[in-house]
Design brief:
This protein is an alpha+beta fold. It contains seven helices and 19 strands. The strands form six sheets. Strands 6, 7, 8, 11, 12 and 15 form a six-stranded antiparallel beta sheet that branches. It has a four-stranded mixed beta sheet with strand order 1-2-5-3, with helices on one face. It is globular, with a radius of gyration of 20 Å. Bound molecules: flavin-adenine dinucleotide. The site of flavin-adenine dinucleotide has 30 residues, from strand 3, helix 4, strand 9 and strand 15. The site of flavin-adenine dinucleotide (FAD) has 30 residues, from strand 3, helix 4, strand 9 and strand 15.
């Protein structure tokens, strides 16, 4: 958040003036979203605010609804692309208390579950390290995923045969009407890279807190597991390149990377956007790619894979 520079207030639409009267925290106007996503590229957002506590976020949600202003919450921006036309509305980032981790139970003995309450703004890296230091097992598979807990749960992120949904006990979220509710596991429907409600919708809600189910292990086994997963990533993925990880979802029973590779698309470029030659399901920004370049490359890959194999790939990355 340090990189935020407060922008000049841009007069114009009435909601902008109303928002600056209503919101006591900083508002950043006409923000270049390249700074907030791992693709390192993206259009501008009209406004960006950092919410630091539940009460202020509840009232912000209520205000946005009352004023008919579009909004989007983001975590670490590792699975989004803001298109070149930009985002008309308010981008919300969770800071402050939303980064907290609190044990719900005392550390258990071998085999016993331990519940941990995690703020949605907490980074995966911080949570994995926190758990490793307390010898808590169960989320090592997340190591190397550069997201926030809110983003990981919203995406039901996973790797190496595990998904975060398997660990979730409750999800607390704030809806558009500004009301906080806690949803039990039975009310949640986790599927491949997706979280939905069994009844109703989460589409207009912000996840603010998650309780995870972990179990005790030893520091040595946790560190060894994390090392192994990181080594696997280093061997397969274009580490350090600006990307959003796997661009497309794997179709049922197949892998998007295999299909893209089989269509001969490794190295395919649009401007500085390129299909990684290391991992075909990664689109990388090799320098000065625009969001339009990435979207054009995405469409070309979809078309060519469809012609080659008859499969229409679905993006995993959320286009805003
Ligand atoms: C190098 C690299 C490797 C990756 N490896 C993996 C991997 O192995 N497995 C995997 O599953 N993914 C992987 N990803 C993709 C990405 O890291 C995950 O999808 C991650 O969960 C996104 O988290 P985020 O906080 O960055 O979310 P963002 O990208 O900021 O947002 C993603 C979506 O989640 C929503 N969202 C974010 N926070 C909240 C919230 N608090 N409440 C409600 N909705 C919210 C956003 O609105 C958006 O729709 C990788 C990405 C990169 C760049």
């Amino acid at each position: 958040m340090d990189s935020l520079r407060k922008k000049r207030y841009a007069p114009g639409s009435a909601w902008r003036q109303n928002l600056s009267r209503f919101w006591s925290g900083a508002i950043y106007w006409d923000v270049d979203m390249a700074e907030y996503c791992t693709f390192k590229v993206g259009g501008k957002a009209e406004a960006l605010v950092v919410a630091t506590g539940r009460t202020e976020l509840e009232s912000l949600m209520h205000w946005l609804r009352e004023n008919g202003v579009s909004w989007q919450v983001i975590g670490r921006g590792s699975n989004i692309l803001v298109q070149s036309a930009g985002f008309n509305g308010v981008i919300i980032i969770l800071g402050g208390r939303f980064g907290a981790i609190d044990p719900v139970d005392d550390p258990g003995t071998e085999g016993q579950e331990v519940k941990v309450r995690v703020g949605a703004g907490c980074s995966v890296a911080h949570l994995v390290g926190w758990c490793a230091r307390r010898h808590l097992r169960g989320i090592e598979f997340l190591v190397g995923i550069p997201g926030s807990i809110g983003g990981v749960v919203c995406m039901n992120a996973g790797a190496w045969g595990s998904e975060i949904g398997e660990r979730v006990v409750t999800v607390t979220c704030i809806g558009q009407e500004g009301v906080t509710r806690t949803l039990a596991r039975e009310q949640l429907d986790f599927s491949y890279r997706r979280l939905q409600l069994n009844k109703g919708s989460l589409a207009d809600s912000i996840i603010v807190e998650v309780v995870l189910r972990l179990h005790p292990g030893t520091g040595e086994e946790i560190r060894a597991q994390c090392r192994e997963y990181m080594n696997r990533r280093r061997a397969k993925q274009p580490m350090g390149a600006a990307s959003a990880g796997s661009f497309f979802k794997n179709p049922s029973g197949d892998s998007a990377g295999r299909l893209i590779d089989a269509a001969g698309l490794k190295g395919l470029r649009r401007g500085d956007a390129m299909v990684s030659s290391r991992h075909a399901n990664f689109i990388v920004n090799t320098g000065q790619a625009t969001a339009d370049d990435i979207v054009a490359l995405m469409k070309e890959v979809q078309q060519k894979v469809y012609l080659h194999s008859g499969v229409m790939l679905e993006p995993e990355v959320h286009l805003l």
